[in-house]
Write a sequence for this structure.
């Protein structure tokens, strides 16, 4: 059976040039004693915007791991697929993030709902979850509300899972269910019943991606209360542990944190809690590598710096269009974006410093960073030129990618010295 190991990281590489640098970060962690499984992920949205095919990710993952003589497992994740988009991912992927966000809130039929309520009647009143001091209290109608909100989505997850299983065969892929791209977070008690529903659909779930409290904006730090997050995250870990035993889910089922890049405030919290409870984690990072390409090109100077300046100026013009598909996961204050004129006069240090996620650097500008984050379409529009620059400045870009994944992400999450 294809089994995800305790620690894994989702790596996004929009333009398919940085797999080797990402893998170098994974191998460096291994040298320091932390074994992490790399999972290359790319969503349908990214494929469409850039014009790539799911198979391109497979080719990249296979070739960089072969080149580096990497003998441990790695995966290719069909990221945020649903019933409509899954088909073209089935051959080339061995990890599927089944996204049921769009089905949340739709009602399952009465028979399904009644059956679920009957199967959960033992949990009404108090549920004792080992490790959580106060028992969780829930009424029959409380469970009914959860069913109303999530049962239909769980049924759909089962349909999508079966569709994949039919082609690939049971045990030949990793299944994740994601519910993160929704406006309101799921509480630990909701997570408990969601896992019951997914177990009821016989999905051998290895990772679950809930939505947590607070904002997980793309490419920037967490916005919210880390203490509240810690409480929720710890309860979720304990709920998963209990649900595995109670519902017979796979023993390696673990938490998946989406939009997980750059959540520097949370890494020590997450790292401490998974260590405390001896749990695994899947941390999904994606677009942050594209930002490092831009930073690397800015650092290289010359025509590479000119290219990224032009890209930023274009992004300013097309801001609304670029931001639209990401409206729920970015927060840009247009007043904090430097003008094109201003940026035209910047040197490498100033441009790279504005984008690189080092909060203590006074040049750092999270608004500009988020705008570039969603602006990758503009590089796709000038792909030949962009690829030529990436090839010319391969080493400086690779160093930025490595530094970001290894020093700013892995070291903070796993408490390693960078
Ligand atoms: Zn996600």
């Amino acid at each position: 059976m294809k089994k995800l190991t305790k620690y894994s990281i989702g790596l996004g590489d929009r333009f398919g040039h940085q797999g080797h640098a990402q893998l170098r970060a994974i191998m460096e962690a291994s040298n320091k004693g932390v074994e992490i499984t790399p999972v290359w992920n790319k969503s349908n949205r990214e494929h469409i915007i850039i014009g790539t095919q799911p198979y391109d990710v497979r080719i990249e993952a296979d070739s960089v791991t072969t080149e580096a003589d990497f003998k441990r497992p790695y995966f290719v994740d069909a990221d945020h697929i649903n019933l409509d988009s899954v088909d073209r991912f089935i051959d080339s992927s061995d990890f599927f993030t089944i996204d049921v966000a769009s089905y949340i809130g739709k009602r399952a039929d009465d028979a399904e709902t009644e059956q679920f309520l009957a199967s959960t009647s033992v949990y009404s009143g108090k549920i004792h979850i080992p490790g959580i001091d106060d028992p969780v209290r829930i009424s029959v109608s409380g469970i009914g509300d959860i069913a109303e909100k999530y049962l239909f989505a769980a049924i759909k997850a089962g349909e999508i899972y079966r569709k994949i299983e039919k082609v690939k065969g049971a045990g030949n892929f990793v299944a994740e269910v994601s519910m993160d791209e929704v406006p309101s977070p799921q509480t630990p008690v909701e997570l408990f019943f969601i896992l019951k529903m997914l177990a009821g659909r016989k999905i051998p779930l290895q990772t679950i991606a809930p939505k947590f409290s607070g904002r997980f904006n793309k490419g920037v730090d967490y916005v919210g209360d880390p203490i509240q997050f810690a409480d929720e995250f710890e309860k979720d870990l304990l709920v998963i542990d209990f649900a595995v035993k109670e519902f017979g889910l796979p023993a390696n089922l673990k938490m998946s944190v989406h939009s997980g890049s750059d959540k520097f405030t949370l890494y020590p919290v997450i790292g401490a809690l998974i260590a405390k409870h001896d749990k695994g984690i899947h941390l999904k990072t994606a677009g942050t590598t594209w930002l490092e390409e831009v930073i690397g090109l800015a650092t290289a100077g010359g025509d590479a710096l000119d290219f990224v300046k032009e890209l930023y100026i274009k992004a300013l013009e097309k801001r609304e269009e670029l931001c639209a598909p990401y409206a729920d996961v970015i927060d840009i204050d247009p007043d904090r974006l430097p003008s094109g004129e201003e940026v035209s006069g910047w040197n490498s240090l100033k441009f790279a410093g504005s984008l690189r996620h080092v909060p203590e650097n006074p040049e750092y500008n999270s608004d500009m960073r988020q705008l570039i984050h969603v602006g990758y379409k503009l590089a796709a529009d000038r792909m030949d030129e962009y690829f030529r620059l990436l090839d010319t400045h391969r080493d400086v870009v690779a160093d930025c990618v490595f530094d970001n994944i290894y020093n700013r992400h892995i070291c903070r999450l796993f408490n390693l010295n960078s």
User: Anything to note?
Assistant: The pocket of zinc ion is lined by residues 80, 178, 180-181, 209, 258 (CB under 6 Å).
